[in-house]
Amino acid sequence: MSSTLSPSNSPKVRRKPSTRRRAGSHLPAHPSQESHDRALNAIRAFLRSRTAYDAFPVSFRLIVLDTKLTVKRALQCLLLNGVVSAPLWNSEESRFAGMLTVLDIIHLIQYFYHSMASVNITSADVEAFRLESLRDIERELGVATPPLLRENPSSSLFDCAKLLIQTHARRLPLLDYDTDTGHETIVSVLTQYRLLKFIAINCDKEIAQLHLNLRKLKIGTFVTGLPSAEPSEGDNPYNPIATAGLKTPVFDVVHMFSKHSISAVPIIDDNGVVLNLYETVDVITLVRLGAYQSLDLTIEEALKQRSPDFPGVITCSASDSLGTLLQLIKKRRVHRLVVVEGEEEERRGGKKGRLVGIITLSDVLRYVTGAVSIGEPIPQAQEPDE
């Protein structure tokens, strides 16, 4: 795996050529399907034997937002505490009211961006908007209301993972019952990253047996064919992956986030080489700066406002192993990997660094647990290359 620093991390830093340092996958000469499947079954048994409580860090903070808060104050709270989501609580009825996520902010931007241009809505109206009205925005936009997910902390990690996958959620609120008050109480939030890191820390022996490569295991979303040299107007040569360029307006990418329910869009050049990622969390910075009034700025301009401590774009090859990926999750915070062509593809006439696919934590969790989204077939491990 490699971590490629973004060329647009800070407007004050001179742009340097991109460097890609890769760690080997340590694939054996003849990966064993039998040992791979045995390791998967052992990991799943481990998850069934552990509860959500077991995955809690030794020390953590829980940020809970009252639905009466304005969006402006809620965002200030998130930024101050370094988080991008938080449970919502209806204090009038003393009940859990769902989660505030970056996607809610995306929907809010879409709604007010158009409303400011068509009706008499001001910046003050946006900043005074209350969290309790977020569901009204979803109805106006015609997007699905997220399910009111929750699970008990004593539930098995396997059941928690299954619920995350079946509902396409990235985080799961954990609620218990307070016998003194007779009300539910929010205990914590289990994220996909926390769950996968727990596996990576506790299943070293099993992970060492996961040698089959990512493409053969069908983990992630891959470009369906080689990009056309001259795609017709309106075609996306990297279908089904949504992409953008440095000159793409930010609002076009915001629309991609909402339309496809995704959290990042690769920024590529004319040859399909990955230059950067634009993420939903980047939009929070723009909202904080009041830039929802001028989202016609380009991605290149928006990236100049990104924090200089952005960790960079994490890349991998389709020939890397699942075990290597899980070892990376163990070592550092990872939310997604961009699959690019490497030296091996370049020798076959490809373009080094060109976009091949994207692997999200949902993809990894879905495969490792064997859980499936509603209506999807169960993913099966594929035979290794001869």
Automatic annotation (TrEMBL):
Residues 1-36 are annotated as: Disordered. Residues 144-206, 235-297, 306-374 form the CBS domain. Belongs to the 5'-AMP-activated protein kinase gamma subunit family. It comes from the Eukaryota. CDD domains: CBS_euAMPK_gamma-like_repeat1 (cd04618). This is CBS domain-containing protein. Keywords: CBS domain, Repeat. Residues 12-24 have a biased composition (Basic residues).
